[in-house]
Amino acid sequence: MEATVEVTKEFDVHEIRQRFPVLTRIVNKKPLIYFDNAATAQKPDVVIDALDYYYKKYNANIHRGIHALAEEATSAYEATRTAVHKFLNSKFREEIIFTSGTTESINLVAYTWARKNIKKGDEIIVSTMEHHSNIVPWQLVCEEKGARLKVIPVNDRGELDMEAYKSLLSEKTKIVSVAHVSNVLGTINPVKEIVKYAHEAGAITLIDGAQSTVHLNIDVQDIDCDFFAFSAHKVYGPGGVGVLYGKKKILEEMPVFKGGGEMISEVTFEKTTYNELPYKFEAGTPNVGDVIVFKRSLEFLEKTGRKNIHKYEQELLKYATGAFKEIEGLRIIGTAKNKTGVISFLLDKIHPQDIGVLLDQQGIAVRTGHHCAQPLMDRFGIKGTARASFAMYNTREEVDRFVVALRKAKKMLQ
Q1: Catalytic site residues?
Q2: What is the pTM assigned to this prediction?
């Protein structure tokens, strides 16, 4: 099982690993192997230290205070907005809205833009491979407005049927909302093409970037999507922070999402006027500390080099895929030509949860179940899978240990 991971000299996986304290843990008397990165990524020391420093030195509410701590916290908070703006290459800084995560970002669009613009007989398009977070909000809109949800099919390799997609588009299509990368299959969808066809049909687009942002270089102007959503915790940042990018003109025309402080301009008992972008969508006290330290995770990614990371992860995926295929009875679900570091699999007739339990006993963390993608499971005629997902800090040695552990689990369960 020989393979060479070719990366530039700037990328040293063993040096990278030293930046993630949790990777030194011993679990069940074994060194931790963390292959559950699609669920959440671990955090580097710079993120952990920055959060500790915030609470020790300048914890304060933002935007409404004139004292030193409030001004420091406000400046740091808004610096993260600027960092995200540059990270996504949005046209305007005010196109970046902070939420609690990808789920809230999608719901924001569904509850505001969709409820204002969708009417009876209109159509919303999603794909078979969507996470429930990109299905249920649109179902709720359809039920309320009398609209119809249409679904792009997926082929046996786990790729979108683009000809079928084009045939679904019509003058009734109002929004197309699809995942950039599948959390189950790892498939990288052709989002530029998806957006182009949607716009030609007169529809707007939302790209769920929860699984893509950590692996790919995202340029929302190049994609030309109308909305883009992702979560900080997937990109080595803190939990409870999400981003919604939206084109300025569309955001300005959307009604507010939640009412409260900060999102207002003036309040009387007769009438309330709303704040300018992006604040009209950021009601109440935000998750100040975690938003502030989110900037550190983006800086960490940029300093490490997103091209370096992508190249390393692709070589690791290739190595792991080859190693997995050597295990008799193992079936990989999702064999798209263009994919990221995710391998979902079944092993003979063994229940995925049993595999997960035995791997955990050997210090290996994977995810099992339907991965909040039950329609996709139905498409492949299965109830769930075991899923190994990789990050920049995973190694070939860990893959080798995983294969040994999987063979051991298989022998015990047969």
Answers
A1: 372
A2: 0.94
